[in-house]
Structure formats: structure tokens, C-alpha cells
Thiamine biosynthetic bifunctional enzyme (Echria macrotheca), 230 residues
Amino acid sequence: MKTDYALYLVTSSSPTLLGPDTDLIEDVVRPALEGGVTIVQLREKDGDMTTAQFVERARRLLEVTREFGVPLLINDRVDVARAVGCEGCHVGQDDMDVQSARRILGPDAIIGVSASTAEEAVKACREGASYLGIGTVFATSTKKDTKHIIGIQGVRDILAALDEAGYAHIPTVCIGGITQSNVQQVLQQSATPNKSLDGIAVVSAIVGSKDPKAAAAEFDRLVRASLPVP
Ligand code: TZP
Ligand code: MG
């Protein structure tokens, strides 16, 4: 089945985003899925979670994403993705390479790669990435080590380079500082004649929202109105 990248939720366990008695899965991800999130990435950077806890959380989350028929990807930890049998993983430039990840997860796994330059994007496609996460678009306090703030023009340049290299068919989402106020501008202004974004990825605009379901539903409305008709 074709993966829908339109509204991609990346989780965070940061206490500054999650309220004190908030359960990430039941109080954030489930309502966000009800609101229209189409794909979920479990990203654990903030706590000092053990591997055992990580696997347990991924298993619990997979039960929920399966209820909604939405893919679950694991950030960085290809081993955890394999252990729980979810749909795939997302790797950054310093993580395991795509080919090795695919050896572990198999030919049908969804393997996403972060890219902040045209070179990184084209290389990831050549190596068999299923989709690209392009960014960081705008400065964000969610990710501390964002060296490369590329702006909308940077996203556009990468999309143009993908088209030029024959990878216009590889799905792309962008990430970093995306809000309900800028999402339509990002989708519209990054589009090139042959290659547009397939969706947007957000952390704080949904995880940090008081009402994740309403936040996701509003993104869903805004994104659907700006994506080219398939
Ligand atoms: N990669 C680049 S920016 C970022 C990641 C994981 C964090 C984006 O968070 P937010 O809150 O949507 O700006
Ligand atoms: Mg990583």
C-alpha cells in the first residue's frame, strides 16, 4: 500500500513539551491520529530511557498505530524497529547507512533519511532511501544540534536537485519549525515544476499542543489544501 506522508508526527518525550501527567501515547499520539496524522516516528532523545524501556514503548505505540492503519518508524534505532516489527526507521547522516538498515529490516521496510543538502538527498536516494526528511527549515528549540537552517529556498533547491537527478518519485517531507501559520507557505513556495513536498513533519506544534487532536486536524486541513491533487 502507498504510504501517505502528508502529516508526519515525530514524537518527543521532552518535559517542556509534554505536560507533567501526560502519557505520550494515549494523550498525544492517539488523539493526533484521530485528528489525521498519517505516519508516526518514535524519537527518544530527551530522557535517559533504557533500551528495554524503548522497546516496550515502541511495542505499545505500534499497537495504537496499527489500530489506525498508520506506519510506525523508529528514529535512529534500527534494532528496535526490527525487534518490534514496525514498518521501518528514520536515520540521520551520522546514523546507520541505508543499505545496512535495509539488510536488517528487509526490502519492504520504510527507511527514511535526513538531508540538509542536495548532495545528501541525492546520495540517500541512490542508496535506496524510501523517503527523505528535508531540513531544518526554520530554527527550532526542539532540536538542539540544528547546524543547517536551510529555509524554504533550501528545501526548493533540494527538490529541484532530486528532480534533476531522476529522483522526483522519492517522497519528501520537510521538518523544523513548521507551524499552522507557515505550513501552507512552506508547501507552496518550496514546490518546483516537477517536484513538490509530499508532506510536513512536526514535533512541537502537535506534541506541545493542549489539544493534539485539534492541532492535527487543523494541519490536515491546511496540508490537504496545499498539496497538489494526486
Ligand atoms: N530534525 C530537524 S528539526 C527537528 C528534527 C527532528 C525538530 C523539529 O521540531 P519542531 O518542534 O517541529 O520544530
Ligand atoms: Mg539520528
Notes: Residues 10, 135-136, 140, 142-143, 146, 175-178, 202-205 surround TZP (ligand 1) (CB under 6 Å).
